[in-house]
Amino acid sequence: MEQDLDLAFAYSKPLDLDEYEKAPLGQGVFGTVYSIKKKTCHMSEPQNICAGCIYCVAAVKHSRNSPDLDEEAAIHKTLRHPNIVRFYAFSNNGLYMEPCLQGSLDKFVDGMSFAKASKYMRKVMSAVMYLLDNNIAHMDLKPSNILLSNDCPKISDFGGAKRLVNGWCKLDQYTKQAAPPEVMRYVYSSGSNVLDGKSVDIWSAGITFICLLIGKYPWAFARSSCVEYKEWENENENSSLGKVLSKKSPYGLHVISSMLTQYYCNRPSAIDVLSMLLK
What we know:
By secondary structure, the protein is α+β, with helices and mostly antiparallel strands. It has a 6-stranded mixed sheet, covered by helices on one side. A two-stranded antiparallel sheet has the order 7-10. The longest helix has 20 residues.
């Protein structure tokens, strides 16, 4: 049973997971995600955490800075979209969220048809458009950060999310395989870590689209020293990857190619991508 709640509350008492019936769902950099069911409620707990209701909770390691957790909670609790994991409450060592018990999009290791992948991506891009319209960039979109509930994809993990200022934000968190060339320039050379957040999310969504189609990341990082990326950079739709994607769908290849434009200023907007996927 999922609790439908309107407000998210701060909760200063640390989570005591011994008070919950729990099952681990996954392991992340900063902690473990559990499916939990509260055995009993105490008066000191936030009123929107109820006994008998099922939640997901990200139990955060002590190595994670409290200001980072506060910033993640401050952004996540404002979001209301059917394709974004609902935030309920947080303590100083964990976040309570809606349960998404079907795993994440990275479980499709054999890939899928263009029809199925585009169905998921339409919903993902609807959520991305909502975020960017509200001047928030996720900054770490990837299959493992998109969960499934009743076969409906929902974006999760806002640990790297940033509020945009004139479209720009500072990079704090990224995944090499899903990050665009401008992130790799910052990581490996003297590039700036102040980036166009909208373009970062479009690129990472394009990589996610590829992962759904072929079941894996297309390259280790978007830099010319990576053979797979260099071939894509030079030959694009005529590359080995392009030919694989074209067999799935020539139109899908066209959409992905536009999302993975090397120069960030030439990438389509979220609404443009969504419009292409709705054709």
